[in-house]
């Protein structure tokens, strides 16, 4: 048994007048044994017990240019289910339709590049799981409100923003919120300024202005009057 060398070493330490060292050595033994009994640095069960990997995403149909997080769940023979998103190797069967990241901090994030279909695969050891990712063509963008009256208030604070939203219509008839993905602009920053990332606008002076939201080459607009 492997305990004999340990006991022999303990006896040598005591016999050599090193009782204190032996005492601390004994305390370390359980820690050493526990370290040797782990399932590996990944914290996952042994790879040979993995029976299935399932791949899911929050959204399978989005406009080109949209990032989508995919998740991989490993199913083990002992009934354990574990999130293995950061442990699998990700792959897209068609890199012209979508790419997917294997980089730390963004593993499993796919970016739609064009309308079409691609298989997103997650592989851990010899086990793989696949999900179909189908980016759709962006047909149009609707900015809400399409017609707006903003009231000029020289005492307004930064928090008193007028919020515009952008909704994309996809080729299958579904819609996608593009408010935080679109690039926003104002036709006259002297009248209205707008946050390019969020669509939050502030009136600067009286007058008419056009607010635009652009994504994937598609433009949506709203007519605004500051009074």
Describe the structure.
With 227 residues, the chain is mainly beta. It folds into three domains: 3-36; 47-133, Immunoglobulin-like; 138-226, Immunoglobulins (Immunoglobulin-like), CATH 2.60.40.10. It has two helices and 18 strands. It has helices at 3-15, 19-36, and strands spanning 50-57, 67-76, 81-83, 89-92, 98-100, 109-112, 118-124, 127-133, 138-144, 147-150, 162-163, 165-170, 175-177, 183-186, 192-194, 200-203, 207-215, 218-226. The strands form five sheets. Strands 1, 2, 3, 5 and 6 form a five-stranded antiparallel beta sheet that branches. It has a four-stranded mixed beta sheet with strand order 10-18-17-14, with no helix packed on it. It is elongated, with a radius of gyration of 29 Å. The N and C termini lie far apart (89 Å). The model is unreliable at 1-15 and 19-41 (pLDDT under 50).
């Amino acid at each position: 048994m492997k305990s004999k060398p340990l006991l022999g070493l303990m006896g040598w330490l005591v016999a050599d007048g090193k009782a204190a060292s032996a005492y601390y050595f004994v305390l370390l033994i359980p820690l050493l044994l526990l370290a040797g009994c782990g399932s590996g640095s990944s914290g996952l069960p042994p790879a040979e017990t993995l029976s299935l990997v399932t791949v899911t995403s929050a959204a399978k149909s989005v406009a080109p240019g949209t990032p989508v997080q995919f998740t991989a769940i490993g199913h083990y023979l002992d009934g354990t289910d574990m999130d293995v998103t950061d442990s699998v190797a990700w792959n897209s069967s068609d890199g012209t339709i979508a790419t997917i990241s294997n980089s730390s901090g963004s593993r499993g994030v796919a970016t739609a590049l064009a309308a079409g279909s691609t298989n997103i695969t997650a592989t851990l050891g010899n086990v793989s799981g696949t999900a179909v990712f189908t980016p759709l063509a962006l047909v149009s963008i609707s900015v809400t409100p399409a017609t707006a009256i903003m009231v000029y208030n020289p005492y307004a604070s930064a928090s008193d923003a007028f919020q515009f939203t952008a909704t994309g219509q996809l080729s299958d008839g579904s819609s996608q919120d593009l408010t935080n993905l679109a690039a926003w602009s104002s036709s006259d920053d002297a009248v209205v300024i707008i946050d390019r990332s969020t669509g939050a606008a502030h009136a600067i002076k009286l007058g008419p202005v056009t607010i635009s939201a652009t994504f994937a080459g598609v433009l949506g607009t709203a007519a605004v009057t500051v009074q």
